[in-house]
Amino acid sequence: MAINSVWVFAQVTNGVATTGTLELLTKARSLSSNVTAILGGDASGVAAQLGEFGATKVYATGDLAGKLPGVAVSGAMKAIIDGGDQPDLILFPQNYEGRDVLSRLSVKLNKSVLTNSIDVAVDGDAVNATTPIFGGNTLVTTTFTGEGPYLVAFRPKSFAAEASGGAPAAIAAASVPDLGATGGAKVTAVHVEETTGPKLDEASIVVSGGRGLGEADKYAMVEELAKLLKGAPGASRAIVDAGWVPYSYQVGQTGKVVKPSVYIAAGISGATQHMVGMKGAKNIIAINKDKEAPIFGIADLGIVGDVHKVLPKLIEALKGR
Amino acid sequence: MIVCVKQIPDPALPGALDGATNTLKRDGKLILDDSDAYGVEMALQLVDASGGGEVSIISMAPNGETAGMRTALAMGAAKGILVSDPALQGSDALTTAKILAAAVQRLGGADLIIAGTESSDGYTGTVPEQMAEVLGLPSVTFAKKVKIDGGVLKANRQTEEGYDEVECALPALISVTAGVVEPRYPSFKGIMAAKSKPVEEVTASDLGVTPAGWAGAGQKVTLVAQAEARQAGEIVEDDGESFGKIIAFLENLKVI
Known about the structure:
The structure holds 2 protein chains of 2 kinds. By secondary structure, chain A is of the alpha/beta class. Chain A has helices at 19-31, 47-52, 69-82, 96-109, 219-228, 237-241, 272-278, 307-319, and strands at 6-10, 12-13, 16-17, 35-39, 57-60, 89-93, 113-117, 119-123, 126-133, 138-144, 150-154, 170-173, 185-192, 205-209, 232-235, 262-266, 283-288, 301-304.
């Protein structure tokens, strides 16, 4: 099936489109000249930016007034499709809101979903999505069968965001239909966790700690090293589950995907769960006392040693420079 | 309350694909997915806090497998429904959600349905929200703190920037993140009691759902390839001076 029209579920933070949105728009415009962004919110401030990255049109719901995007935006999408504007392919970011909207819409349209994908291509009549499994060791290509719209969610950083210099996207209103009982959840307060230094998924250097640190207060070494290198501190799922650091620090399949210039893994063995989120780093340094740890299989520099001995000396040496 | 639990191959063992369908192999011994233990614990705690009620579990697995469900029953759940049907092999997330939603209805519904955010083997991550849509319920996904106060669900929902406080009318469905509560270890008494707790085994047709199976999933795997492997570099034993190697490595990259 040829792809004539592609939609992208767009997200805006602090008045600008998220990097993930721009990545998906860049991909979308390589598949079709007819790219539409769908936004749960107000588009007036971002229509120029969405257009610059390839959207010719943006459907915007206006303020969601506390409604969760999953039900509200999927409801708006369904109404547009029922109204006759039907895309062949809809791209979603693999994140909290993207997954919610995708899931709700799949039921409304009775269509399967593909998630955790890293690429999509049109080959003649076939639309193929690529998804890494088993920690990225194996790549699976899935071909959609039957009628669209095809629904796919992509991991962050699957595509590079590149501006095309397009004209501002034309704004069209999308109305959220009556959600009935499904609209029973309301956001009553929004909390932003303050972080200093670069954001974890944007930092050029990431220093992550794992269970090998032994106890929660040793994580301070990771934070200090990250600060000295002007990088961001991260964590394995093990120490997030243990409550040492907030979920927002987590690198891996269920956390952030990072692609820094340098990734330092301190006391992390390298569970598949974790490696999925960091193996795209340009350079990997691993410190672990178990020389059989899987992390050494992908490290450019591996130090078989105790993080409690290596990190303090490294921190001392960097301070002295 | 109803908790959705998935029984998965031991994640410590390497995964494999079925040669015929290229779907994940799940025919060996199955265990309770770690990420579902949080949902079971959360349900038990909420029932305790409300002073009454019962926790049921539902699961879909091949070959009548209940080993993982017994773990949840040993923790304190009262009963379960297992959907096991060869026709469901290779089902996609949407079919799974329809099946689990039908199992919820077979139990007469619930005030609250709890699931993990995603399984540890397939990790599609859409089933909870799809179930909510099938059942026509509101949902709060990625909940990292949950309480019920005066018949209203209050949850902190994970966001990219931090978290949102969300209030939701019941009945509702939530998905909970790992670490939301500390799952209890089943006691010996619990393990013994679990052996005699009722688990009803049903098929898709018992639930009135026509299974689409892999052929009806609207997608098919057409290629499986090995990804380009990342090569290991230099590995050194720490001799007390190896921090110097790291300094040199970083200097070489001109990041310090």
